[in-house]
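hi! just following up on the protien thing from before. the input was this:
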Amino acid sequence: SHGLELRRCYFREVSFNSDITAFDRLPVMLTTAYLNPRPGDTLNQARLDALLNDIRLLGWVDMDDLLHEELVKHQQFTLSAANWVRCMCEFIHSQLSYVDSNDYSHRDITRHLAIHSDYCRILFAEFERRFNPALPHPTPQQEAEFHASFSEQIERINTGNQTKNHFVRTIFRCALNFLESILKSNFYSRDKTALAFRLDADFCKFYGSLSDHYTAAFPSDLPCGVFFFFRRRAFGYHIRFTDIARGGWRSVIPGRGSNRLEMNDSYEYARDEAFRECYVLAHTQHLKNKDIYEGGAKLLTLLEPVSDPDLFKPLLWQTQRSITTAFLSLINYDSQKELQDKSIIDRLGTREIIEIGPDENMFDTMIEWIGEYARQTGYTLGSGLISGKPGAGINHKEYGVTSFGIHQYLLKTLEELGIDPQHDSFTVKIAGGPGGDVAGNEMKLLLAEDNGKPLYPGLRIIAITDGPAVAYDPDGLDRDEIKRLIHKEALDAFNPEKLRGEGAFLALSNPITQNGRQFHHQYTVQDGKLLKVLLSQNEFMQIFQDNIVHYADIFMPGGGRPATINENNWQRFFADGKPAFRAIVEGANSYITPGARNLIQQNGVWIVKDASANKCGVITSSYEILSGLILDEEEFMTHKAELVAQVMNILQRLARQEADWLFARFKTTGTLLTDLTEELSREINAAKASIAEYLAAHPEFVTEELLLTHMPPIFRERFTGRGDRLPEEYKRALAAVELACRLVYSATDIDIGTRLLMVMTEKEKKEIEKT
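and the predicted 3d structure came back as:
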């Protein structure tokens, strides 16, 4: 496509570490290429620049798929133009999956984009006009004329088959919508290794107009903003529901280590579900974030599976670094609130401040790297882009903050069930392993001791379901053995000799191969003896899935994939009409679908929803970021122990406050507990939005006294007068959430200004009078 012939080429990889799994390996590929113009061609600067731009894509762009074959080799698209089409294809597929996943497969969408490449060329040319900083940009009138003209061309597509006509026209209507939804992109940034697009979330309305199935697939609330990321072997979304928002970064690699067919099947399913998973998790986060100044968000990236486990971390590091740099280029502003990267055309025109946190497959080394990279590049929040840093941060796993909150809801649930955990016998089953954050720390709390004696002597953890293994013991899994594994090893390291009760078992996920067939080891207690047997793949999966069906008073999902319990399988937990639990306290997000929650509760089981139960993790992250903005790093480290202790006190207060509210309302109204969680969240979030709008017009309400009331006591005692270190948007949001949480309990028809004064302290009112 550049009119050049490759004479010879050399590649050499240089790195700091020979271990391909090492975080600091940082390989660099040195390429030496000898090129000549084709006979009769001349090489000018524009063609040379285009060539150099394509060369920079070699390390992260697909060059072995249908789009490369058809668009680059046959239609003379540049690598970057073909990659834009490839990216558009991924986005369109991720949306049409909810219109009709059977009709609109990724393969079919790709094929028709390649067949109708002229339309792709027209769309890309319009994208260039709008976002290439070197070109004059079209006026709104010209953009409207393009929309009308291209829409007319779409309607003229005629394949000779009416059904196919509808299919192809729909694809190109979606392609036009993708173009028109873009507000900014790093496409013309020089040294990118992933594409990033900030999209107008109204594209959801467009797809909803195509089919009611799309609308029904998502929560009714429309996101505030959506980012889309794309590179070879990975893509993802960041979805948020308010301007200032926070939520974890989840990296999903489905089915790694199993056979290739199963891996591909798992990936295609995850590919279809990626956008919805991110949307639902972000929405759950938004409901969960009612106690803090940030709204809810989620960043989810889906990586292609790898058959070689040694390639897992290199792919993960590469993808997370690439998406971090791409994401930051779209939200990194200078002192004038303009994007630092001047190659980005910003059609949004307002500063965006976003926080992320750790989630699935986010390791401490990467958390530190992301924070340091954000600080070095001058991000608005510095290293506060990400929470959970092991040094100048409050690491969730180290302090067990999420599980600490979940535990408060467990204690309240037991109390309401008439169980005194310090004196009565009760049983618990857990999804999630001892090596994980949420499940591992919950096990730690359940097995805690006071002066060498168990805090809950009557507790039996009868079943644990972990990825590498499942274990069951009707007499209770050995306490000391579980404690030995916590935060050190997965459940497959459980010593089977510790199994006691009749029928107890340990089944291992890692398969062995005999005579070309896969089997799984199981240790089981039969007639008082420990036996070792082999299970077929089907037998193992049945045992694995049934482990959470064993009866226990409380079920605590602390790990596992979303929608593990759904409308199609919830009845498994009601064999012979009897429930397999009295209550569920959700530690893992979206483990149970909304429909299944309702059906389970309608059959007499209580469910404490994830948006209530596990909210303390995000509350901790919020206080960590605030502390990082107000304190220097040295101050943070000096006072960290005191600060963490105060944050833990706040977590306990907020969790108990909500748990008391939920069960009090449940008793008086009979409303499902999960509905009450959503009711409370919506009420507080609506109040936050109204108050924030009011405060924008009445800034005198945003006083230091009010802000300090929201903060841990250490800031009032030692660090007053530092409000200027916070962005104005943050101060207003902090004041709004503090007042909103008070107002929810004093609802009245009085105007909002008077209501705010009703819930303020006398000291806060005096500060307002001064201003």
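The chain has 28 helices and 21 strands.
The longest strand covers residues 4-14.
cheers
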